[in-house]
Specification:
The protein is of the alpha/beta class. 33% of the residues lie in helices and 20% in strands. The strands form two sheets. The chain has an eight-stranded mixed beta sheet with strand order 10-9-11-1-12-13-2-14. Strands 3, 4, 5, 6, 7 and 8 form a six-stranded mixed beta sheet that branches. The longest helix is centred in the C-terminal third of the chain and has 20 residues, at 294-313.
């Protein structure tokens, strides 16, 4: 096994590159996160991603195609019949989800709530509707402070979210409540429980950076587990550890935003000389996609592009950098949920000649390509692009 290699995998959370053939089944016909943002803002300024070949993947206003790109380029289709964070990340690491996680467009049924009450000791809640997290705390925050009841809500994803003011339900207590809820959600196959602490006063409630995801454990080993079993470091930055329920991770580093994530990534390059460094940059999705903030999303993309040269300068000769996404979240589209889209694929190495990687049939092609690099045998679906 060749274990002296180092792979850096960056997930640009929700940066989709256009509808998939089955997008209309999800109500997402016409979705194109990065393409539509570029059209809506008069063009994106992404010179470094353009140099890498992003403009070769799709038409992006302001980002030209490149006849001599720095990176290999393509896009990937999702084989799983979902469009959520957990499914996307799991499939990238070789685990295709055959069954959709349940969603709750009318709120959680009585059966689930009864189990929640029994597991947590909570006897009443506020909400129990699909909602935007920033909106629901404004609507119910004052009543929450008066009653002490947690705010429970969901979204278009398979999530059970619990919001609480940090002065009413301390964060540690909220986390324990979510841990108990995770056991309930395992029974119903619900993808994630999310703690959503907030602070402030009526009319000015704001969510804090102490959000925490409690995901169901992957039902089988993923590529991460295989790497870990082979003795390779698997560093999870951002919410990676949460998404995989810490399974297959050797070290987790939580970060508050994209800027801190990139600083942490560059720092890890100085102390981790082989294995996988796996980061999720969450701001695109959490701050801009779900909130339908087109200009904010565009600025976040340009901020990431601005930081790319510094990252590239820290790469060693035999490093492999892979940039992709886990789903779409087109802020020009209807609603506030994720969108069913292809995701970009950029693969950079100083040792490799860039090629067109085409349209991959599954995100799992990425995971098995990483195993191929480390010369590890496996039984995962997918086809290596190396």
């Amino acid at each position: 096994m060749s274990n002296n290699k180092r792979v850096i995998l960056i997930i640009l959370d929700s940066v989709g590159v256009g509808e998939m053939p089955d997008s209309d089944e999800f109500g997402d016909k016409g979705a194109n996160t990065i393409g539509n943002i570029a059209e809506s803002t008069g063009g994106l300024n992404l010179p470094n991603l353009q140099e890498m070949g992003l403009g070769n993947i799709l038409h992006i206003k302001g980002v030209a195609s490149n006849s001599d790109p720095l990176a290999s380029y393509g896009k990937m289709m999702e084989a799983s019949k979902n469009k959520d964070t957990v499914t996307g990340h799991w499939e990238i690491m070789g685990l295709i989800t055959e069954q959709s996680f349940p969603v709750f467009p009318d709120g959680f049924p009585e059966e689930i709530l009864e189990d929640f009450f029994e597991a947590t000791g909570v006897y009443n809640i506020l909400g129990n509707i699909p909602a935007s997290g920033t909106v629901i705390i404004q609507e119910l925050g004052e009543e929450h402070i008066k009653t002490g009841f947690p705010i429970v809500y969901t979204s278009g994803d398979s999530v059970f979210q619990i919001a609480a003011h940090e002065h009413i339900i301390p964060v540690d207590k909220l986390y324990k409540m979510c841990e108990a809820t995770r056991k309930v959600c395992d029974k119903y196959n619900i993808g994630r429980v999310i703690a959503r602490p907030f602070i402030g006063e009526h009319g000015n409630f704001t969510r804090t950076f102490r959000r925490k995801d409690f995901s169901m454990k992957p039902p089988h080993d993923t590529v991460l587990d295989i790497l870990k079993k082979k003795g390779l470091p698997v560093i999870g930055i951002g919410k990676i550890g949460d998404v995989f329920a810490e399974q297959g991770i050797t070290k987790t580093i939580h970060t508050r935003n994209n800027a801190e994530g990139m600083k942490t990534l560059i720092n890890q390059l100085s102390i981790t000389d082989h294995g996988l460094i796996f980061i999720n940059l969450i701001d695109f999705d959490m701050l801009y996609g779900h909130r339908r903030d087109v200009k904010g999303y565009a600025k976040a993309l340009e901020a990431f592009d601005y930081e790319l040269p510094d990252l590239l300068q820290h790469l060693e000769h035999n490093d492999i950098l892979i940039i992709t996404a886990d789903h779409g979240c087109d802020p020009t589209h209807h609603g506030t949920d994720h969108t069913r889209e292809h995701v970009p694929l950029l693969v950079y190495s100083k040792l490799m000649h860039p090629v067109n990687l085409g349209i991959r049939r599954s995100f799992s092609d990425l995971g098995v390509s990483i195993l191929k690099l480390f010369e590890i045998e496996h039984q995962f679906p997918g086809k290596s692009f190396f």
